[in-house]
Amino acid sequence: MSVLAVTGTDTGVGKTVVTAALAAGVIARGETVAVYKPTQAGLDDGRGDVDVVRELAGVTTAVEGIRLAHPMAPVAAARRAGTTLPELAEHVARVADLAADHDHVLVEGAGGLLVELDGHGRTLADLAAALSAPAVVVCRSGLGTLNHTALTTEALTRRGIALAGLVIGSWPAAPSEVERSNRAELDRSPAGLLGALPEGAGRLDPARFRAEVQLRCP
């Protein structure tokens, strides 16, 4: 792992907490990591995703390409704010600068893989391709996740983006039969599971998060 893209099958699947877990794992190995969020659209109590990652993982460098107030698709949020989204080349340059000073860079997308990040239809998939970065796909545990995960991984494969692995973003304390079956199927997929984060992991105290929430780093 040098530059790694973190995407998801949808919005709200746990990309930010997975990014924090991956970052914490890198730090625990004694290596340096930076986190880059190309577009932050919408805030939770005034905090963006990089703020959450910084707190949970203890990351020193966590930056955004642009922060938008409204929780909408980036293009719509920028239009409503009367501003212009950064160009893909700007994101590539920012990540390159971070990579020059850190062992690893994690790039967390907005929403799903093909959500537009600029005004020209370019997406996280385009950014990952431009960076030659493999991708981790964060998925749900419940019904429908096998299809959504297959669609996302197929889109990555068609664009020549390597798949670094899958992560279930929220694993319930009492999983249903469907969820247990889904987990087994995801683990048997060619990419395999890097892990499954316990439900509510993002609400843990940072020290406990770093000690208990672990993923197999790609």
UniProtKB/TrEMBL annotation:
Protein name: ATP-dependent dethiobiotin synthetase BioD
Reaction(s) catalysed (UniProt annotation): (7R,8S)-7,8-diammoniononanoate + CO2 + ATP = (4R,5S)-dethiobiotin + ADP + phosphate + 3 H(+)
Catalytic residue list: 37
GO molecular function term, any single one: ATP binding
One Pfam family cited in the UniProt record for this chain: AAA_26
First-tier enzyme category under EC: ligase
PANTHER family: DETHIOBIOTIN SYNTHETASE
The protein's annotated pathway: Cofactor biosynthesis; biotin biosynthesis; biotin from 7,8-diaminononanoate: step 1/2
Cofactor(s) needed: Mg(2+)
Organism field: Pseudonocardia ammonioxydans
Keywords: ATP-binding, Biotin biosynthesis, Cytoplasm, Ligase, Magnesium, Metal-binding, Nucleotide-binding
Positions in coiled-coil regions: none
